[in-house]
Amino acid sequence: MSRAVTLDDAIGALEQAFMDYNRGDIALGGRLMAPCGKPGDTSLVLPATHIRKQYYGFKQATTFSENAGRGLPTVLSQYFLYSNVTGQPRAVMDFMEMTSIKTGVAAAIAARHLARPDTRVVGIIGSGVLSRPVLAAICRVMKIERVNIFDLNPRQARVFATYAQEVLDVECLVAESSRGCVRDAQIVCTCTTSRKPVLDGDDLSPGCHINAMGSYNLDMQELDEKTVNRADRIVTDVPRDTLNASGDLACLANKDVVAALDRIMSGEIPGRKSEKDITIYESVGFSVLDMALALFAHEACLSKGFGQDVAFSSRDSEQ
Amino acid sequence: MSRAVTLDDAIGALEQAFMDYNRGDIALGGRLMAPCGKPGDTSLVLPATHIRKQYYGFKQATTFSENAGRGLPTVLSQYFLYSNVTGQPRAVMDFMEMTSIKTGVAAAIAARHLARPDTRVVGIIGSGVLSRPVLAAICRVMKIERVNIFDLNPRQARVFATYAQEVLDVECLVAESSRGCVRDAQIVCTCTTSRKPVLDGDDLSPGCHINAMGSYNLDMQELDEKTVNRADRIVTDVPRDTLNASGDLACLANKDVVAALDRIMSGEIPGRKSEKDITIYESVGFSVLDMALALFAHEACLSKGFGQDVAFSSRDSEQ
To answer: Which domains does chain B carry?
Structure first.
């Protein structure tokens, strides 16, 4: 699917999706977590409805932890799109790469609205699957001069550095510590699957914006208590859900700093108030964005005549 | 998909599925009901895992009430099948016709295990989508000589009668009342979407078995209080779920008569104890059967080289 959608397309589609959600034009469904595979493996179903465009759909994402040993991705996902007029199926699409793009773009949108406008340096901890799309997307929305990368696996960090330099044309410093990665960065992205903090809040420079992208359940944690309680503003997609879904915010003393990103974007709630504010975007997955990106890809495939990645895809005769 | 599976195949596969469920070889997932379309329209996701055969999957079924006015089915459904080893997708299939077959076959299996062995007459109330597969399946498992059909729409009842006579080679009487339909029947099937009783318990003959197939939420009701409280044995797929899912059983005084069909089939719990017992199979949908039938169809498609109804379908290299 990703061949049908450029990064700029995705940024535009997801900025629009936050605004559609803010106005009630896209609605969140519930979520279903079902066991499958070995104990601990799961299937997650995440529905949403695009009321304005008259589609509904859901993402199905599986986590099979033993896949790593098979050379397969641990997380697999697909998107299923339906007419919201008749319930007829409209498209089935592989959604693995699109999910990474969505997560990276959402973090870039958060950075655009919360980071210091004079940001030039990004620090990224963890050079896995999320690191490339988040840097690529941030580079489309801000003027980035250098990225610092830190990974416990230095070889993987060097591969990332080559990508940053060759593909994105951004200077890249392979840091030897978390501290070296974050201390001169105005935006810090944590892209790990860690169960304990990957940075020390004392290392952050004043005015830093953090995209905490890896923790999506209460057992996972990338930020330490100092970082969380230094924050002047913490934004999430759906605050109540995020407080129950990320281990990062379990230690949060003052819940009043938490706000929904769409309400910052619409101007209802202030985001950054000074150059020295610490801001955090805590990302746990937002099915509104999956829906919007799947629908954008579907419409792009129809208009461009693409079909090779789409199992079935058809126009809605009623619409 | 239904071209890949004969009715006898489906009967064998679903008898096996009840036994697999009884032994813990197929596990039920939860269920997710999401709003879509107009108020009252829904999307239902029903997962299950075939532990022995190493597949998991889910059915997605939509109810769009205004579809009838468009000449489209009100209920649409698809099945999504995955490897339970890796989470990789294995098949997507349209599941509308398969759902009707499943429901009809499950009722026939219940009748085989609960109705009087000397049953010769079946009464069917409601000549809609469920009436044909249930009669066809009962005729495969019992020696039926006549069917009585009653429908508020006599024209539709006559179309059903032609089907029964021409396709199934069974004599068919178009009854002028519910009473005329059920009074000499040893098996009665209610196949309506009614919100109030469609038969009078006093009209049932002693020894009758009833397949109550239409009610799948608390607002729907086909059986009257007399029928329910006359019953010596009521079987369902998952008793606790059924008691919360069907309006038929809201009036039940003695919950001890309720038992799971798989436990009757395995001999753990007695079913019919005498020729005069009234028995009821209350059917609200059982995702274990959807899984088993989808997997049977998938395997049949692979072994027969069929592919025309399958959007994507592949063997699991690990299995």
So the answer is: 2-98+287-313 (3.30.1780.10), 111-282 (3.40.50.720)
